[in-house]
Structure formats: C-alpha cells, structure tokens
Amino acid sequence: EESEVGYDEVELLAILEDIREILRGKEVTPTYGACQWPWETYNNEEAIRRRDISLVSGVGPSFKQKLTEMRIGTVDDLAKTPLEDLVKIKGIGGKRARKFSLNSKALISENYICLGLCQFPEKRTEIFLDLEGTGEQVADEELVAMDYLIGVLTRKDGKEEYAPFIAHGLDREGEMFGQFVKWLLKQNDFIIYHWHHYERVHLERLAERYALADEIRRVILENMRDLYRDAIACFVFPTYGNGLKEVANYMGYKWKHPDVNALESIALYFQYVTDPHKNKDKMQKVKDYTEDDCRATMLAKDWLKQNSIKG
C-alpha cells in the first residue's frame, strides 16, 4: 500500500533501515549527480571535495559500489588501478575499463585526451539545433508533454543567424512544428548538428504526431548529426559528465543566464503562456537559453574538428 508521501511499505522500510545504519555510524559517501534539489549542490560539492569515484563519467551508484568494494574509492585510486584489475570486476568489460581509466587520468591532468580524428561533411549550410520541451515528468491529466521551442542557428557563407520557432500557447505545438519544417525545406545542402539524442527523438515524435510525409521525414532525419557521439568517440574530457553544459563549458563557452536550466526553462515557458503580453521577458530568457545551447553546439563542432587534427 502506498503512503501519503508516495512510498510503498517496502520502500519506506528500506529508507528507515538506511537511516538506522547511518545513526549506527555507517559512513555514506556522496555520489556525484545522484541527488536532487535541495541536496544537489551540497552533494556534488562534497563529491568534488572528496574526489569521489563518481566524478568519473559513467560511474553511477551501481558501478561505484562495485569499485569501492575493490577499495577503489577516488579518482586517484582509479587512475592507479591497472586495466587488468578493472576488467575483473563484474560488469566492467575492457571497453568500459579503458574509458573509466582514461577519464580519471584526464580529470587528474585537467587536460583532454584525443583518441582519434573527428571528420565532418562539407556542407554549404550548417544548422545547429536545440529543442525545449516540457518532458514526460510534467505530463498529467490536464497537461500533455509537448515541445514548445525549436531553436536553430544557421551558419552559411560565413554568416550566422539564429531563429526560434515558438509554441505561443499550449495548443500550438503543431503550428510551431509546421513553421520549422517549412523553413527547413527552404534550406539547401544542409546538415543539422545537435548534442545527444533528445533532438532526434523529439523530431521523430513530432513527425509522427503531425503525420509528416515520409519523404520529408527522411530528408530531416538523414541529415542529422549527433555531435555527442563524435565527441565521446574522439575525446576524453576532464569533466564530470559529457553533457553539452559540461563539455562546452570546458571548451570555453559561457551561457548568458547560468541560473537557467531545462526545468527553469519549462517554468519560464508556463509563466509566459499564462499571459504572453505581460511575460515577454520570460520568453526572452527561454530564447536566450536556447540560443546559447545552439551556439555552444556550434562551438563544440568547431572545437572537435580543430583539436582532433591537433591530436
């Protein structure tokens, strides 16, 4: 039976037992990225202070437990551990062991490690794409998950231009998507760069929801390039993760509004649609945030190309 706070009896008993163990003196180490507000900042700062093993990209709670059982508890411990010892740990094969080891060494040196050459096609028009959506976590009976802004930064013949396509109401997602598709089909010899799978997944969802013709769908999807895949294939970064924020920040990009993240963007959008005229400043902040993501993606593409050649 579920309690008023949203836990079933088994979960609640497990939480209480964890608390008892802590009271009995069990040491609990912070796991980077494992806590939400209001403990997120404190937890992450503690993990950094302790140089916890979870700072290594890909080492979440499960792998952390396996590594600490082998007395590998810090970034420095991991860097010193021979690969042949890492691969003996259940669930950590040769590829993952090498990745963990290289990332720990990059963190210690504070320098990237180049693994290979990043090559990109020569296209007249480069489009750097970022989508903002409410996400499934806010969907309920009254509010369906939706995408509310498609940001595109175009670089063509040495000139850059940013254009946001916005759903100016909760029922105007289709209108926004239609405007984006109409604009995109006017572009010639283009490639769409994005970071990770979110943009591709959501464009596929939009294409399905609004019955986009198969031929047009292919034109869009076949010209998309995930820079995240290029980045992790060619580089190991001295960062605590491989998200756009972490990697582009390391490369030198600075966001206009450091306080705005994906959840804050959603909150600003909801404030905007309640009164678009009164809350124009809220939407401007969302547009700035999305433009920054597009420009960070462009910087990442250029950085990958330039530094993989150097490497």
Present the secondary structure layout.
Elements: H1 9-23, H2 40-50, H3 61-69, H4 75-80, H5 83-86, H6 94-109, E1 113-114, E2 125-133, E3 147-156, E4 159-166, H7 173-184, E5 190-194, H8 198-209, H9 214-221, E6 224-226, H10 227-234, E7 235-236, H11 244-251, H12 262-274, H13 280-310
Helix pairs in contact: 10-13, 11-13, 12-13
Pfam families: HHH_5, RNase_H_2
Domain YprB ribonuclease H-like: 127-304
InterPro entries: DNA_repair_Rad51/TF_NusA_a-hlx, RecB_nuclease_TM0106_put, RNaseH-like_sf, YprB_RNase_H-like_dom
Would you mind describing this structure in some detail?
The protein has 311 residues and is an alpha/beta fold. It folds into 2 domains: 9-110, DNA polymerase, domain 1 (Orthogonal Bundle); 115-310, Nucleotidyltransferase, domain 5 (2-Layer Sandwich). The chain is built from 13 helices and 7 strands. It has helices at residues 9-23, 40-50, 61-69, 75-80, 83-86, 94-109, 173-184, 198-209, 214-221, 227-234, 244-251, 262-274, 280-310, and strands spanning 113-114, 125-133, 147-156, 159-166, 190-194, 224-226, 235-236. The strands form 2 sheets. The protein has a 5-stranded mixed β-sheet with strand order 4-3-2-5-6. A two-stranded antiparallel ribbon has the order 1-7. The radius of gyration is 22 Å and the shape is globular. The mean pLDDT is 91. Residues 127-304 form the YprB ribonuclease H-like domain. This is YprB ribonuclease H-like domain-containing protein.
